[in-house]
Amino acid sequence: MQIRSVHNVYIHSMNVFITGGTGFVGRALVLRLRRDGHTVTVLTRNVNRASSLLGKEAEFLDSNSGDEAISEALARSTAVVNLAGEPLIGGRWTEEKKQRFRKSRVGFTNDLVGHLSAISERPTVLVSASAVGYYGNRGDAILEEDSSAGDDFLSQLCVDWEAAARKAESLGVRVVTPRLGVVLGPEEGALSKMIPAFRAGLGGPVGSGFQFVPWIHVDDLVELLITMIRDERYAGAVNATAPKPVRFKQFSAALGSGLSKPAFLPVPSLALRVLFGEAADVLLNSQRAIPTVASVNGFQFAHATIESAFADILDSSEIHITTVDGPIPQSDYLTKNHPSYLLKAESTLGQPLDTIFDFFSRPENLGLITPPGMQFRMMSSIGEIAEGVEIRYKLRVGPLPISWTTRIDVWEDRVRFVDSQIKGPYSSWWHEHRFEANGETTKMFDRVFYTPPAGPLGKIANYLFIEDELRRVFAYRTAVMRRRFG
User: Of 277, 302, 327, at which residue does a domain stop?
Assistant: First the structure.
């Protein structure tokens, strides 16, 4: 296939305008851009929700602000990344739902290009998402970017979506349409729906298991999106997939192996068709998509194999939980609420201590480092964190909504801080965050002394699910922090 060859351009400082910035990929992209010091503007329908998910990492523009405000924000932008689109997974596809899919993708992208046409100073590039659904159900055929489109609903949706974005080319804007595969990451995306069954030993291949899954690790996707912004060789369609697509049987086996669980219980195609109708195509269609454009342009995937991706996503080796059988820190709280267990975590972050500590000093960032499925919501307004401050918030643990109040017991600037639970689900919870400068990097240490509720039953609950839940939460936080700080 023909690859357009243009000079590579590196833009040192950018203002990036993002739609869909509160979604799985959008939030990861915002954090990665902020690591390099870029400014980010997120267009959103709900500013309060967006700020709870992204804290102070972005500026937010209400999509109801009017055409003039949106056009002005675009005129200030170096690049636009369009990730907006109503999720395809979730129930059967009615005609009404299909129209919403089209409106949120094709209609929205048409409106976005309309805003670009209304301004004279325009961003240099529009990266507008598409999907491997473009190709339809293609069995074992190798699919490169110049392969033909399929003929089903998803294919036509992607064809029209990409065509809407390409209208910006007539305005002098470079347009890239990454065709996203199944995006894999901790606690979100496709894996968030699959892992519970696999953890319970009930996972397995979907349908025949022979269909190809065109997957990509979220961190590789984010790096590829940023490369598309910076590198002028990228124009037109780009398969945003890992170089080694796998059959669903291999995908399931790798996930089961990563969780140390069996993965042989299949989900029959007929059952999916009965439950989801046409929507089952998302799971049953086979697309052996290969990232030819990215490979020719020298893009390096950090996770080229499914085993590497799952090893990274499922890793909680830096998190250790033991029973408390030695001395505990001197603390009035722990003296009154003697702990049963100790969680310890350690990570190295690639920026100076001042930068890391400032991030944790902002209560608005608490939601950003909490798995989104926990639906974190701040209930108190706090200017700055300091000793004696109480923070009230709500979150969800499994199916249960929980109100939690924590108090800052210790605040040693640039050294450590300690928070303890005043109201919440645990009988005791004391969490120390400690920071050490290590040249231009920072070592971060966590110690959590805790006691589950319900007395003797709490020990059983800790063994059955609380330990796994805490490892999951702290592993997610580590992934977020490394995405943000390296």
Answer: 302
Containing structural domain, residue 455: 319-485
Q: So what's the pLDDT on residue 373?
A: 86
Which residue do the tokens 């645990």 mark?
A: 426
Residue 306: CB atoms within 10 A of its CB come to 22
**Whole-number average pLDDT of the chain:** 91
Residue 304's SS3 state is: coil
**Radius of gyration for the alpha carbons in the chain, expressed in angstroms and rounded:** 23
Total-model pTM: 0.92
Closest CA to 258 of 207, 307, 191: 307
Residue 230: CATH number of its domain: 3.40.50.720
pLDDT tens digits, one per residue of 210-235: 999 999 999 999 999 999 999 999 99
331 and 456, same domain (yes or no): yes
Let me know whether 99 and 27 are in one domain. yes
Contacts of 6 (CB under 8 A, 6+ apart): 232, 233, 235
Task: Reply yes or no on whether the pLDDT at 5 is more than 70.
Answer: no
Task: Please check whether residues 339 and 235 belong to one and the same domain.
Answer: no
> Hey, what are 255's tokens?
């996930």
Q: Is 106 helix (H, G, I), strand (E, B) or coil?
A: helix
Claim to verify: residue 294 and residue 341 sit in the same structural domain: no
Whichever domain contains 464, its CATH number is: 3.30.530.20
Residue 68 buriedness (CB in 10 A; 0-12 / 13-18 / 19+):
exposed
Torsion of CA 89, 90, 95, 97, to 10 degrees: -90
Q: How would you classify the pairing of strands 341-349 and 246-247? A: unpaired
Containing 72, the helix (H) or strand (E) segment is helix 67-75
Q: Residue 52, CB half-sphere, CA atoms under 13 Å: how many? A: 18
Q: Is the pLDDT of residue 337 over 70?
A: yes
Based on the structure, what is the number of domains in the chain?
2
**Cα–Cα nearest to 89, from 241, 280, 223, 309:** 280
